[in-house]
Amino acid sequence: MSEAKYEDLLFEIKNNVATITINRPERMNAFRVQTYFELIDALTRAGWDTDVAVIVLTGAGGKAFGVGGDSGDKKSGRAVRGVLGVPVEEIHSLIRDVPKPVIAKVNGFAIGGGNVMATICDMTIASDKSVFGQVGPKVGSVDPGFGTAYLSRIVGEKKAREIWYLCRRYSAQEALDMGLINKVVPEADLDAEVEQWCQEIAERSPTAIAIAKRSFNADSENIRGIANMGFQTVALYYDTDEAKEGGNAFREKRKPDFAGKLKGSKKS
User: Fold this and answer.
1) Which of 4, 113, 207, 255 lies at a 20 to 30 A Cα distance from 71?
2) 119: helix, coil or strand?
3) What's the domain range around 46?
4) Looking at residue 78, which CATH number applies to its domain?
5) How many Cβ atoms are within 10 Å of 206's Cβ, its own excluded?
6) Starting from the edge strand earliest in sequence, which strands make up the sheet with 17-22, in order?
7) What is the pTM of this model?
8) Residue 67: count of CB within 10 angstroms of its CB
């Protein structure tokens, strides 16, 4: 897959920076099956390119960094690769495993799976127009690995539980205050701010940074095992009436009715 042949991504290497842009703005940069595989290819290419010092992950269009899986891509029709039918766990691992810092450049909504990716990236810089949050329990889904356990290391147990249990949305300033992101800048300054951070990193020893990243990751590496086990559970959950009700309600733009969907429950 050549650099110019991606359908869902834009890929550029300039001044020792690889910029990977999810290019589906008409879908709020939601992932279809093909997007996952293209991102795996791009992260792999950039991650082991000796001319690359830092990777920037962002979304096209100015409205969204990403919102996770495409709601039009039914879970039952995936069955391509990965526990959930798409290799989401491979992307999470790659962001951590590549020996380069990965910066999430967020301009717009980082919701659901997009929020998880921004969480896993080494650093996150956002415009003041950005919005963060989770939707999983509203739509019959959850991230049982880095999106929960690692999130709690970043923002604390109480805040992480609030984020997942209530599914509220948080402004960029609120995200900064809780430690979810590193920096908030005016929308017009976002590109310049990220470029500045990248150039500072490019002036540092790449080997020292790679070792530092490995060391940081080692402390939370047990979460990968938790994630693998958790995704197996979620794969079974997606076949339940409860999970299907969440997805159907989202597509039909109505509130889900989870009452009576739990196995063995009884409606009065």
Assistant:
1) 4
2) helix
3) 9-188+206-218
4) 3.90.226.10
5) 17
6) 9-14, 17-22, 54-59, 102-106, 123-127, 183-185
7) 0.91
8) 24
**Does residue 85 sit within a domain?**
yes
Question: Alpha-carbon distance 151 to 142, whole Å?
Answer: 13
CA-CA-CA-CA torsion sign (14, 200, 128, 133):
positive
| Segments in 124-221 forming alpha helices (H) | 136-139, 151-155, 157-166, 172-177, 190-202, 206-218
How many CB atoms are located within 10 Å of the residue 258 CB? 17
Q: How many residues does the chain have?
A: 268
Note whether residue 18 is domain-resident: yes
Question: Quick one: CA dihedral 38, 87, 194, 15, positive or negative?
Answer: negative
What is the DSSP-derived secondary structure letter of residue 25? Answer: G
- Per-residue tens of pLDDT for the chain, all 268 residues: 335 589 999 999 999 999 999 999 999 999 999 999 999 999 999 999 999 999 999 999 999 999 999 877 655 555 578 888 899 999 999 999 999 999 999 999 999 999 999 999 999 999 999 999 999 999 999 999 999 999 999 999 999 999 999 999 999 999 999 999 999 999 999 999 999 999 999 999 999 999 999 999 999 999 999 999 999 999 999 899 999 898 888 888 898 988 866 654 444 4
Pairing mode of beta strands 54-59, 109-111: unpaired
Does residue 251 lie in a domain region?
no
Cβ partners under 8 Å of residue 54, min gap 6: 16, 17, 18, 100, 101, 102, 103, 197, 198, 201, 202
Q: Is residue 244 part of a domain?
A: no
